[in-house]
Design goal:
nine-stranded antiparallel beta sheet; single chain; 15 strands; 4 helices; alpha+beta; four-stranded antiparallel beta sheet
Length: 259
């Protein structure tokens, strides 16, 4: 969500200078050039992209999946935009700055997700014994406001404990309640099968068809499965008010169905 900042917030002006990285060394795992430099220092990594309009600095770690992205104006070297990624999804609040360093626009990437990213991290750690903040676990996390499901969702892919080289554990999680909507295991090199997400959509579609198809007849009336379940629930609720025993209720239902 984008928000214009009416009351401009004070921000200490930050400038780009290559001198900041004078004690960093060239990261030989990547090929640097005049317009792109890869640097490293201990567990930290930096990629610097030089363009005619701006300079982009991406700071990461080999230990965790967070990436801090800052964009500076090439002409003045002052900061004009910054944000943070987690497994390539934007999190927290992105900020844009004017020429004098005041915040002029903010985007709250977390707002749709009532079930927060931190809660997701804690849930996966508790239920799957996997730390999503540990990059060495080779996990993947994605999230979005899904149009088909009409809700925000998280998709979590975890390296399979049983067969890490061949399989991945998948979890589709409600971004509002934290409920696991769907979980499955898929083969890493299976390019023919639908993705787990589309498998879930197919299940929902099949359930919708089943719920709205003919299920059974009772006293001359046809019921879909969904209607029959609602009928049973209402019947049970009415019976509870005057019941003499639970077994009698079910015996009565089956007796009437067989009439």
């Amino acid at each position: 969500m984008t928000k214009k900042v009416n009351q401009q917030k004070t921000h200490k002006m930050e400038y780009f200078t290559i001198e900041k990285y004078k004690d960093w060394e060239i990261d030989t795992d990547h090929s640097s050039s005049e317009n792109r430099k890869f640097l490293k220092k201990d567990n930290e990594r930096v990629q610097i992209l030089f363009d005619t309009e701006d300079i982009q600095v991406e700071r990461t770690s080999i230990l965790n999946p967070y990436k801090k992205v800052q964009v500076f104006r090439s002409s003045t070297k002052n900061l004009y935009a910054e944000g943070i990624e987690f497994y390539q999804i934007w999190i927290g609040i992105d900020k844009d700055y004017d020429e004098v360093g005041k915040v002029i626009e903010e985007r709250d990437n977390d707002k749709p997700y009532i079930f927060s990213l931190q809660q997701l991290i804690e849930k996966i750690k508790k239920e799957q014994d996997i730390d999503l903040e540990d990059l060495t676990k080779k996990s993947i996390v994605d999230r979005r406001e899904d149009t088909a499901l009409q809700k925000p969702i998280y998709e979590v892919h975890l390296e399979s404990k049983k067969s890490p080289d061949y399989q991945t554990d998948y979890f589709l999680i409600d971004g509002i309640t934290g409920e696991v909507l769907f979980e499955t295991i898929y083969f890493n090199r299976d390019e023919k099968s639908p993705t787990p997400y589309y498998q879930y959509l197919r299940l929902l579609k099949n359930k919708e068809i089943e719920d709205n198809s003919y299920y059974k007849s009772y006293k001359g009336k046809d019921y879909t499965k969904k209607e029959w379940e609602a009928f049973e629930e209402e019947w049970y609720r009415d019976f509870e008010e005057k019941k003499e025993g639970r077994n009698f209720f079910w015996d009565n239902i089956f007796k009437k169905l067989n009439e």
